[in-house]
């Protein structure tokens, strides 16, 4: 069982409800001792477990809200501990950036090697942000690989109607 507390700038992770209560109390007491307080409106709890019973954590008289997902440092975490939503979001953001750089991909003055380096420098970090925490399945891996090929085909100006194998596209790109 993993239980997380999301408090805007920090995430506390505990193995049990009791451990989470203890951590929250320690943070709350430390904040009070220096004249600060926990904002209970921004503080949330989330349980990642087979046990779906609600998590009740109190800070003084207030009870913290339980959520099914939260965003932390730009990455989304959910109760199922899956990354499907996160990968699709990352691919969408990268696809938008790929489209916004259309003038680079149409440029005939840039070599294919330079375009590949631009893809790796400007597009790929958007896709892979937070990837260390992902648990990929075959479908998600295929989606990421398909997007990579879409990037190369866009840079090579290969239309969808032209039948060029992935191997040939990668060879043209120098990958």
Quick structural gist:
The protein has helices at residues 17-33, 84-100, 102-106, 112-128, 138-155, 166-173, and strands spanning 2-7, 10-14, 43-48, 58-59, 62-63, 65-66, 69-72, 75-78. Strands 2-1-3-6 form a 4-stranded mixed β-sheet, covered by helices on one side. It contains 6 helices and 8 strands; from the N terminus they run ββαββββββααααα.
Helix fraction, binned, reads 40-55%
Poorly predicted tracts of residues: none
Label the overall shape. Answer: elongated
The largest β sheet comes out as: 4 strands, mixed
Q: What is the helix tally?
A: 6
Structural class: alpha+beta
Describe the strand arrangement of the main beta sheet, using strand numbers: 2-1-3-6
Distance between the termini: 43 Å
**Care to count the β-strands?**
8
Nearest-angstrom radius of gyration? 22 Å
Element order, helices and strands? Answer: EEHEEEEEEHHHHH
Q: Return the average pLDDT rounded to an integer.
A: 88
Note the beta-strand portion: 15-25%
What labels would you give this structure?
alpha+beta; four-stranded mixed sheet; 8 strands; elongated
């Amino acid at each position: 069982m993993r239980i997380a507390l999301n408090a805007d700038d920090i995430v506390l992770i505990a193995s049990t409800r009791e451990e989470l209560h203890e951590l929250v109390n320690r943070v709350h007491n430390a904040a009070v001792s220096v004249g600060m307080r926990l904002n209970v409106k921004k503080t949330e709890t989330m349980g990642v477990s087979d046990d779906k019973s609600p998590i009740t954590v109190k800070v003084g008289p207030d009870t913290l809200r339980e959520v099914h997902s939260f965003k932390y440092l730009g990455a989304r975490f959910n109760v199922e501990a899956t990354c499907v939503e996160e990968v699709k979001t990352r691919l969408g953001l990268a696809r938008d950036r790929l489209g916004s750089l259309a003038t680079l991909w149409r440029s005939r003055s840039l070599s294919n090697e330079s375009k590949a380096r631009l893809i790796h420098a400007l597009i790929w970090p958007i896709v892979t942000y937070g990837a260390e925490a992902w648990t990929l399945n075959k479908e998600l891996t295929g989606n990421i690989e398909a997007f990579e090929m879409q990037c190369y085909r866009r840079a090579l100006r290969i239309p969808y109607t032209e039948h060029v194998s992935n191997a040939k596209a990668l060879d043209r790109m120098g990958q």
